[in-house]
Amino acid sequence: MSPVYLDCNATTPVAPEAVAEMLDAMRHAWANPSSTHAPGQAARRVLADARARVAAFVGCQGSELVFTSGATEANHMAVLGALAAARGTARRRWLLSTVEHPGLMALARRLSAEGVAVGWLPVDRQGRLDLAEARAQIAEDVALVSVMGANNETGVVMPVPELAEMARAQGALLHVDATQLPGKAALSFDASGADLMALSAHKLGGPKGVGALVLRKGLTLAPLISGRQERQRRGGTENLHGIVGFAAACSQAAADLAANLARMQALRERLEEGLLRALPGAVIFGREAERLPNTSCLRFGALDAEQVLGRLERAGVVASSGAACSGGGTQPSHVLLAMGQGAELARAGVRFSLGPWHTADDIDRAIAAAERAIGPLLAAARPDTAAVTA
Ligand code: PMP
To answer: CB of 365 within 8 A of CB of 6?
Structure first.
């Protein structure tokens, strides 16, 4: 029996519709969309059609989309572009939350070491952004505020509309890393109030290595990669086949969105109830916060995530952890640390993330496997660890 794959926040399998459309584009739209001859113009039309479909799904105009190699590149373009545009003005500060994706955290550390004024927006024990602190920090000297739409580890949703209002009132730009939203929440760039939004295709059934930065109309940022393509905003021959796959995944996600959200939420609840019942000592992180309907991050007592994940996989369940494993052992998750957990519990977070195709049977198999894999470990663990609250 194949394992139950519950790591959809890391990546999703490529949707059959995306595979079919990509193969078709590879066969029939292989020309360079910048070429003026007929095959090039045909490829250009395929690109325009894909752009329109992604834009319709994201709730923006096609001209506001810049296709990139993924969300990491889009995030870099947003931050480096916005900070460069503010250079020479009184807006010197970049604010970001303490639970951003590791790629953005690394950029913040790098820029801070280079002398950029970086400020941090904290979260509470449930992973919710501290709005009072954000209001205090978003001032006239801020060029850019960056926040994720929802956290990849805990699924906790960030208050984008409130931040958009605060940023607008102070004349700062708002950049939303929306990588985890498509297919898991209603998405509208226009309605969000964000100025910049990063997206990635492979989290919603598209291929890896393609994504987009949405740039609000009228906003011009220096490109990261110079060249003629994407209206001089991102050079390099477009990843046409990837972009077609991205569009197909968007169309697919849009078609069934409301039903998928409800199904995933019900299955996530089934999973959480089953795990809490089967494994006393299991605690859900961010349980009181608004969360994505597909994500559950738990600890099992204080058991180290890597140990739990190894046993889970041998029992037939693939999940993941925000804690990175680096030679010398498991590193605590920066997200759980930011939520006020100590190092031991910040190494204990195990994330299950569902996709729209999962069934109740998958979830029941996962619960049974977890009971077999983790139950004996938990029973043997120190009794006091189960009592520590999240
Ligand atoms: N931001 C978030 C919130 C993510 O979850 C991810 C993927 N793990 C990324 C950015 C990076 O996306 P990509 O793989 O497209 O570079």
So the answer is: no
Q: What ligand 1 atom has the least distance to the C-alpha of 72?
A: 16
**Cα(339)–Cα(122) distance, integer angstroms:** 8
Is 8 domain-assigned? no
How many whole angstroms from 36 Cα to the centroid of ligand 1? Answer: 35
**Same-domain pairing of 231 and 274:** no
User: Is 200 within 8 Å of 209 (Cβ atoms)?
Assistant: no
Same domain, 241 and 269: no
Instruction: Give the closest residue to 81 by CA, choosing from 187, 273, 230, 269.
Output: 230
Tally of helices (H runs) and strands (E runs) in the chain: 14, 12
| Residue closest to 208 by CA, chosen among 177, 179, 175 | 179
148 CB neighbour count, 10 Å cutoff: 27
The pTM score is 0.96
30-49 in b/e form (b: 16+ CB < 10 A) is ebebeeeeeeeebbbebbee
Selected catalytic residue, list 8, 60, 297, 325: 325
* Residue 326 lies in domain: 256-387
> What's the gap in Å between 10 CA and the centre of ligand 1?
8
State pLDDT tens for residues 345-375: 999 999 999 999 999 999 999 999 999 999 9
Last residue of a domain, which of 204, 235, 255? 255
How far does residue 331's CA lie from ligand 1's centre (Å)?
Answer: 19
